[in-house]
Hints:
Blueprint: H1 12-17, H2 26-50, H3 55-66, H4 76-99, H5 104-115, H6 117-137, H7 145-152
Helix pairs in contact: 2-6, 3-4, 4-5
Protein name: NR LBD domain-containing protein
Pfam family, one: Hormone_recep
Keywords: Receptor, Transcription, Transcription regulation
Amino acid sequence: MxxxxxxxxxxxxxxxxxxxxxxxDPHEVAKxxxxxxSYIRNVVVEHMRRIDISEVELCALSGMFLWRDTVQHIxxxxxxxxxxxxxxxxxxxxxxxxxxxxxxxxVTTKTAHLFLLIPKIENSVKLFRENFxxxxxxxxxxxxxxxxxxxxxxx
Length: 155
């Protein structure tokens, strides 16, 4: 879990038993999110384990998400800042790999494997949003305004 804790998928309902946002039966809410949680564990986390992701790589990946060029109506000055920042992230990642003794071909492979996580993470976000919409439609959850904006956001 994001807070460093963990949840057993076989006991997922326990996670939903102790939260204020659940209005419905925690077992039913757990069923809605079970597929997404399994996807995260079996696909996203497994990929992270396979590539032995480091904190630096996780920060670089987060930076690439934060500095995406999919933002609409960005000024040319803003776009230039975005591209320069992403270039810096990539340069820093390259330097990190080189300082850890990787040769050029290994740097390329490590970077590629790291960025292959992006579509998997994007898919997990899409699945979570769908789950939240389903749970909200069936009146299983109460989302505060901050969470509701995130669920409703398509970026």
